[in-house]
Amino acid sequence: MQHEGKEALLRTEGLTRRFGGLVAVSDVDFDILPGEILGLIGPNGAGKSTTFNLISGFYKPSAGKLTVFGENCTGKSPLTISRMGLVRTFQHGSLMPSMSVRDNILLGTIHGVRGAGKRRERAAETAEMLGLTPYLSEEAGTLPHGIQRLVSIGIAFAARPRLLCLDEPLTGLNQTEVANTLAVLEKIRDEHGCSVLLVEHNMKAVMKVCDRIVVLHHGQVLASGTPAEIRADKSVIEAYLGHRHAN
C-alpha cells in the first residue's frame, strides 16, 4: 500500500490476536508513513494495547502479517524489531527511578551508539532536545510526573529510531506539560525525520498533533483518516467520540 508515492514504514495486514476463546484484535489493517504522526485511538478494551504489543513484537499474532521497514517481521522478537529501528515506550513509564536522568538516557543508547564518549554525547544531545538538560544529574524518580514522561521518551529516542511508538505518554499530564510534550513530538518528527505512533486517550491532543488517526472498536478498525475526517465520521461519533468532540 502506498500513499502519495511513500512506501509505508510499518504495515499490518489482517493482524489478529486471540487469547483462548477471546479475540482481542481481529483483522486489523493500517500503515504508518515516513514523517507522520499517527494516532491510534479507541474506547477502553478496543484493542489498542494488544495492537501496540503486536507491532512491537511483545505478542505474536494468531493470524495476519506485520511488515516493518519493508521486512516481514511477523513473529519476530521485540529485540529484533527494536534493533531495526522501531522503539516503544511503556504505559507506566520506562525509566529506572533510582538512576539519574543522564544514566536513564544512556540506557537508550546501548544498542544504537558505539563508544562511551559517543554515548554521552548522544545522551546530552537528547536531553537538550527534550528540555531535560537541567535535570541530568537528578534522580529520575524524584522528578515531577511530566518530566518523568519526557525522560521515558528520551530513553526511547536516544537510539534515534525511525519509528517511535508511544503508549499513552500524556496520561496524568497537565495542560502545560501536554503542550510541551506535543512540541517535543513535532520536533522529533520535523528535525529527525522520525515517524511517531501515538496511542492516547487525550482526544484534544490527538486531534491537534496527528496527521492521521486510526480508530479501533471491539478489536477492529472502525475508521481511519485525517483528524477532520475522524471528527466528522458518524460511526466514530456514535461509538466513541460523542457529539461534544465532533463540533
What topology does this entry show?
Blueprint: E1 2-3, E2 6-7, E3 10-19, E4 22-32, E5 37-41, H1 48-55, E6 63-68, E7 71-72, H2 78-84, E8 86-88, H3 101-107, H4 116-129, H5 145-157, E9 163-167, H6 175-192, E10 195-199, H7 203-209, E11 212-217, E12 220-225, H8 227-232, H9 234-241, H10 243-246
Parallel strand pairs: 5-10, 5-11, 8-9, 9-10
Antiparallel strand pairs: 1-2, 3-4, 3-6, 6-7, 11-12
Helix pairs in contact: 3-4, 3-5, 5-6
Structural write-up:
The chain is an alpha/beta fold and 247 residues long. It has 2 domains: 2-85 and 163-246, P-loop containing nucleotide triphosphate hydrolases (Rossmann fold, 3-Layer(aba) Sandwich); 91-160, no CATH class. 37% of the residues lie in helices and 26% in strands. The protein is built from 10 helices and 12 strands. The protein has helices at residues 48-55, 78-84, 101-107, 116-129, 145-157, 175-192, 203-209, 227-232, 234-241, 243-246, and strands at 2-3, 6-7, 10-19, 22-32, 37-41, 63-68, 71-72, 86-88, 163-167, 195-199, 212-217, 220-225. The strands form 3 sheets. Strands 8-9-10-5-11-12 form a 6-stranded mixed sheet, sandwiched between helices. The longest helix has 18 residues, at 175-192. The model is unreliable at 243-247 (pLDDT under 50).
